[in-house]
Design goal:
Elements: H1 2-81, E1 89-92, E2 95-103, E3 106-111, E4 114-119, E5 123-125, E6 140-142, E7 153-155, H2 161-177, E8 182-186, H3 193-204, E9 210-214, E10 217-224
Parallel strand pairs: 4-6, 7-8
Antiparallel strand pairs: 1-2, 1-5, 2-3, 3-4, 8-10, 9-10
Helix pairs in contact: 2-3
């Protein structure tokens, strides 16, 4: 009858819809699976590329480290080969001399009859030259080698006796090494104590040609070398 026919038609339509739904679900599942596979493949490829890049960069850094190490070793070896030692003939600025001893980074040298202590970095080895004789009673001084040239004057104002004489001694040594012919010692007038100490010291100095108070300013002693 007609009702049965309509029921059967509805049942067939329902079944068809269910079948189409299943097909759509299967198609969707396959699409998702495909996308997941592509994503996984791309991720794997990216990780492999990153590992290669990291490995290349690692090798580069390692090579740089090795190069620096080799350079440092060569530098140390070079320093060891050219290291100065006691007895070496040297050149300090424009003066020839000899190393009397080495202590740390400083060397005690004899130059033009003057014994002084200077940084090793300021010395250069020279060829065979006559040995410089050590002058008896030579005083050891610390020379300021950072200056491009020696100062022509020194101030003793406010200093005590021993400090003032030590300062004058170092000042004159530096002046002699730099070839100065005339310098000034500023001791002031005051009670005349510093002036007297300086005068007594200059009388005994073997390299002093002449010294006198500056005309018009008794607080300064002029020294001719």
């Amino acid at each position: 009858n007609k009702i049965d026919e309509e029921l059967k038609s509805a049942e067939r339509q329902k079944q068809r819809l269910q079948d189409e739904e299943l097909k759509l679900q299967e198609s969707h599942r396959k699409a998702i699976a495909t996308l997941e596979n592509r994503y996984n493949a791309a991720t794997k490829k990216a990780r492999e590329a990153l590992k290669v890049q990291e490995s290349t960069e690692g090798r580069r850094l390692l090579n740089v480290a090795h190069q620096r190490k080799d350079f440092k070793q060569k530098e140390v070896k070079l320093k060891e080969e050219v290291a100065l030692k006691e007895g070496d003939k040297i050149k300090y600025r424009s003066h020839k001399g000899e190393i009397l001893g080495i202590r740390g980074k400083d060397a005690t040298i004899i130059v033009d009859g003057l014994k002084m202590r200077v940084p090793l970095g300021q010395l250069k080895r020279r060829g065979d030259t006559p040995q410089v004789k050590v002058k008896p009673q030579a005083k050891e001084v610390k020379v300021n080698v950072e200056k491009s040239g020696a100062s022509v004057s020194v101030k003793l104002l406010g200093m005590y006796g021993d400090e003032a004489i030590d300062t004058v001694d170092k000042f004159l040594s530096d002046a002699l090494v730099n070839g100065l012919n005339e310098v000034q010692i500023i001791h002031g007038t005051g009670g005349g104590v510093l002036a007297k100490l300086v005068s007594e010291y200059l009388k005994k100095h073997p390299k002093i040609q002449k010294f006198y108070r500056m005309p018009g300013n008794l607080g300064i002693t002029v020294v001719e070398l």
